[in-house]
Structure formats: C-alpha cells, structure tokens
Amino acid sequence: MTVRDITSAIEELAPLQYAEDFDNVGLLVASNNTELTGVLVTLDTLETVVDEAIENNCNLIVSFHPIIFSGLKKLTGTSYVERVVLKAIKHDIAIYAIHTALDNSMKGVSAKMAEVLNLTNTNILLPKSGLIKKLTTYAPQKDAEMVRNALHKAGAGSIGNYSNCSFNAQGQGTYRGNNNSNPTIGKRGELHTENETLISVIFEKHLEKSLLKTLHEFHPYEEVAYDIITTDNVHQHIGMGMIGDLPNALTEQEFFTLLKERFKLQCIRHSTLLGKPIKKVAVLGGSGSFAIEAAKHAGADVYVSADFKYHEFYKAENQFVLADIGHYESEQFTKNLLADYLTKKFRNFAIILSKNITNPINYL
User: Which of 202, 229, 242, 356 lies 20 to 30 A from 305 at CA?
Assistant: First the structure.
C-alpha cells in the first residue's frame, strides 16, 4: 500500500481539479510512492498532530486544511508552519490536504453539515460552471458503437440522473495519408472518403486525461480527429454549500437549540431573529460570507456558516437569519467524513482519526 493508493481514493470523492484556484491541495510533503505504515486523518496539521502520527506509526497525514498555503521561502523553524514541515520530513511523514476540493464535493464538508442536521431534499447551494466539457470525434460508421461505448464506460455522457448520453450524426470524412502514414482504411498517398459518424459526449473536467486515453485506445484510425470545448453549463453536483429541509419546521429558538446540541456550540453569532418558523436551511462549512446572497435567493429561512464580518450581518435584511457558528465548529466533522470514507475503502488497513482538537479559538 502506497501514499498514491490513499490519495487516489480520496480524489474519487473530491477530484483536485475542483479545488479553488487560490488553494494548495494535494500531496504537500513526501512522495506518492512511499510505502504506508498507517494513515492519520485530521482537520489541521499541527506539531501535536505530527507527534500523534509518530506515536501511532502513521507515515501519512490526511488533512483537510493545507499546512502549506502560500509559498515557503525558508525552513528554519521560526514559524509553526516551518516546524510542522521540518518535523514531518525528519520522521518521513507525508502530508496530504484536500480542502476546497472537498468543499466542492456533493458528498463533502457541507453535505456532512446537512447530515448532522438531518436535512432532506438537499441540493448544492452554489453549483459551479465551467466544469463540464464536450468531446466531439469522428469514427467509421462500423466502429462508431464500439468507440461510443468505450467513452461511456470511461465516464462520458453522464448528465444528472442520466447516463450513456451522446449526440450522433452521419456524414463523410476525407483524408490523404503521406508516405509515412499507415492508414487503417484506404491507401497511403490516395484521397479517401469514408462514411463516418460524428460522436459528441459531455464529461466532467477531471475525466479528460482518461477519456483521451480511452479514445486513442479504441478508435481505429492512426490519427484521431477530435475537439474539446468547455461549456458554460452549471454542474448541479459540484459546488459550495448545501440547502435542504428540516424534517419538521422549528421555531427559531428550537432551531438554535438543535444547532448548539448537534454542533456542540458554546455560542452562536446571529442576525436579527424574525419570529418566523425555520424549515429550509442553507449550510456552508468554513468562511461562507460569499454565499449569503445565494442563500437568500434560494429561499433559506436560515443560513449556517462562519466568519461573518460585522457589516455582513446587515445583508440578512430581515428576510432570513444568518447564523455564524465558528469556522472550526462548522468543519469539525470533516475528519470523521474522511476517516469513515477511507475505512470503508481500505478495511484491512490502519486508518486512525486524530484525537487532537485543533480549534485555535477559545471562548470565556
């Protein structure tokens, strides 16, 4: 078992291509080829977490937050980031971070928050665009079904609840191979006309490399003609935040009591209470002020997130309630999500949930 086995499994849940541009995700320390002794899953990678990994004979730390966020220009141990990296290197411990790739996963951070609150009828609050691409290629009519089925098997042609989606049109293709060519159909140096099928399929961005490999493997031509474009279509299963319904409507006080109980909260910062029942709930783990307007437009009765600034509470505009439960508190169950996922994937390997409480904020 290597680091790559674990990271590849995580990226099935949350492909790194869906992380935000500002983020620093993936393997941060060590090599993908490192043989594993154990995996420690944490929310943050601190020195105490590295010590915990050493004590448990774990040489891979899977962390939600990246310990290296901006560039490191030196490693002298003068900051907590440098000390963590130095200690990990000294003890041959790999560090991997998933962060906003998991934020944007349909089964990620916000989905876990929704699960904790037992929300139903859940949907992505801020679905992302620019993640759906379209591949168009041309194959001899007798080979078109084989090529199309191979692309579908590799993951192309899935749209929401539908699979094996494609568009096909008949036409004629022409080509003339030079003296160095080896045409599958036709003769070198002669103009050839072939009855072909245009095959067009959409696919998710992270599948592009594997789809092109499949296309070249199953297409009969020596040179495969194709084009790929990025669409503006919104991907309903990739994006930040979730919105859903409580099993039963609650009063505001009942909802805040539930929120405190489920998320083990000491306090909640909130906007003006409106005396209205709470049924539709929007959630987003971590700093979520950027989605306030989206929650409002989606008809949420309350939006639960963290790190709202003073003036951002005004954005509720007495239309719904903003509830800031704290950054750590909103993401605290993420390490459980990752540990449970990896345990199911690797039942006979040591996946350990960190016991460290890495919340840097204290309350009196």
Answer: 356
164's tokens: 């094996």
CA nearest to 287, candidates 338, 334, 330, 332: 330
User: Are 139 and 196 within 8 A, CB to CB?
Assistant: yes
Give the length of the chain. 364
Give the separation between CA 218 and CA 289, rounded to whole angstroms: 47
Q: What are the C-alpha distances in Å from 84 to residues 49, 61, 328? A: 9, 12, 20
Residue 197 in contact with residue 144, Cβ under 8 Å? yes
CB 127 within 8 A of CB 232: no
| Segment 38-95, tens digit of pLDDT | 999 999 999 999 999 999 999 999 999 999 998 888 999 999 999 999 999 999 999 9
Three-state SS at 309: coil
- 199-246, pLDDT tens digit by residue? 999 999 999 999 999 999 999 999 999 999 999 988 888 999 999 999
Identify whether the C-beta of residue 112 lies closer than 8 Å to the C-beta of residue 43.
no
Beta bridge partners of 304: 283, 323
Rounded CA separation 280/304 (Å): 11
Side by side, the strands of the sheet bearing 226-230 are 167-176, 191-204, 132-140, 226-230
Residue that the structure tokens 């966020």 belong to? 69
201: helix, strand or coil = strand
* Those residues with Cβ within 8 angstroms of residue 129's Cβ, 6 or more apart along the chain or in another chain: 232, 233, 234, 235
Residue 181 burial (C-beta neighbours within 10 Å; 0-12, 13-18, 19+): middle
- What is each CA distance from 340 to 58, 165, 353, in whole angstroms? 17, 33, 9
Side-chain half-sphere CA neighbours of 321 within 13 A = 24
User: At 49, phi and psi to the nearest 5?
Assistant: -70, -40
Handedness of CA 43, 49, 55, 58 (dihedral sign): positive
CA trace torsion 290, 293, 297, 298 (10° rounding): 30
